Amino acid sequence: MTNPIACLEKADVVLITGSNTTENHPVISTYLKRAAKSKKTKVIVVDPRRIKIVDFADIYLRQNLGSDVAWINGMMHIIIQEDLHDKEFVKERTRGFEDLKVMVEKYTPEYVEKISGIPARDLVDAARLYAGAKAGSIVYCMGITQHITGTDNVKSLANLAMLCGNLGIEGGGVNPLRGQNNVQGACDMGGLPNVYTGYQAVTDPEIKKKMEAAWGVTGLSDKVGLKVTEMFPKAHDGEVKALFIVGENPMVSDADLNHAEKCIEHLDFLVVQDIFMTETARLADVVLPSACFAEKEGTFSNTERRVQRVRKALSSPGESMDDWKIVCGISKRMGYEMDYENSRAIMEEIARVTPSYGGITYERIEKEGIAWPCPTAEHPGTPILHVGRFNSGQGVFHAIDWKAPAESIDDQYPLFMTTGRVLYHYHTGTMTMKTDGLNERSPECFVEISPVDAGKYGLEDGSLVNIASRRGEISARLKVSEMATDGTVFIPFHFAGAAANKLTHAALDPVSGIPEFKVCAVKLSKAA
Question: Model pTM?
Fold first, then answer.
């Protein structure tokens, strides 16, 4: 997030898109609901489902799946045409505006309506409301990123924010809500194939020298590694022989699961490090039991970039160990002495080699976390990014044209399907499905369908139905709901017994490598 969570209550307008906030981020949703109830903050929601947060919205736009670039370009077209953009901000702090202006010229409200299904009049109202805010915040989640155009979607939202001068100010910003509690921290610590900690490029010779000196080694690779969505196909083809999976359950969470399982079967060796025996761990040659969050010391970096202490509350069971101790033990056995006295020593090394974490110490975050970048011990941290200037100097507008999703409906597969989460379960259910109360609330998978479509296909609420795509088939309970839109069904992905990802396909965003979980074609039929 460019801005703190608390800034949401200081916004004049909040645009929420691709985020079922009340179910996926219930704590953050309290800020949004409180802001809306105060009447000081107007809320725009853009989502293909009539999710709960719509009840707090002043404007609700229901878009067709995969049409995000089109409606965002449409809003910018209106804002530019009506001279509502922040001309001083655009002139002083950005470049590429003229190319953007040319690109969005064709995205008239009427043209956008044909692509997105959003009524032209409603789009105009939303554009005017957002552009008229002194401080406008954009909130998004994986409904924006999990497309073959996910990177384009994010860049488009950044375009919209810059166009209206909504970066570097209190109550503004472009604010992605992270899908899990330390996703931000994992990325910060180099959990990506092209960077070391703090997003320092592995291809930069100077960074390479710095890391070699810090670790007392030579010959660190300067080649970009593989994304996870590149590893699995290479495993299938025999190029990748072994995988070490830590805290992930791809046998429920990966797209096109039938193919993913075949890829894993082609491996020579699979190691899984986790806190429970997951569906993926059951396929492993070796399972390494690790400690959970309450059983270890360390830090998490949350969605607003705040680095916070995690303290050990109880001892871990059996032979389980802290993740870092397991990794260090393996490293030692492979010939490199990776020794740390404790988690504090690791944090000290992080500060030494990571400019954005340079001033963060256990002492400084004893009671309250600090938002990076925090380069020195005297620096207070940076709750709001891009104040006064962008880190790279000027913000860059990207002229982006809309592209259709990778898969379309036809006579055989006449319905679109999208996936997501429910309030009572977390990701693949590794933890939540061991809780009786949560299982009672949400016991099984369901397929959400509109009343019109249920009648069209002769399906009854509560009945068992088969859902098939071009890749697989599952059975689930039918849930007829006004939340659904005609022509589109929704399935939560948590349930291994009826895994929605047996249906999704592995078409990837060319930049991020994220699969298009949010759009695929399916057909429904009564179960025998």
Answer: 0.94
Give just the sign of the alpha carbon dihedral 505, 507, 513, 516: negative
**Could you identify the residue written with the tokens 């009564």?**
526
Per-residue DSSP letters for 27-38?
HHHHHHHHHHHT
| Positive or negative: CA dihedral 97, 102, 107, 108 | positive
Question: Are the C-beta atoms of 517 and 509 separated by less than 8 Å?
Answer: no
Structure tokens at 523: 């057909």
Residue range 50-72: mean pLDDT, rounded: 97
CA–CA separation, 509 and 519 (whole Å): 13
The owner of tokens 């075949």 is 262
Q: Give me the pLDDT at residue 428, please.
A: 85
Decide: residue 237, CB within 10 A, 0-12 exposed, 13-18 middle, 19+ buried. exposed
**Distant-in-sequence contacts of 194-198, Cβ < 8 A, 24+ apart:** 194/224, 194/225, 196/353, 197/350, 197/353, 197/354, 197/357, 198/353, 198/354, 198/355, 198/356, 198/357
Dist CA 376 CA 360 (whole Å): 8
d(CA 440, CA 456): 31
Q: What mean pLDDT do residues 106-128 have?
A: 98
Mean pLDDT across the chain: 95
pLDDT cut 90: percent of the chain above it = 90
Residue 255 in this model has a pLDDT that exceeds 90: no
Domains in the chain, ordered, with CATH? 5-177 (3.40.228.10), 183-371 (3.40.50.740), 415-526 (2.40.40.20)
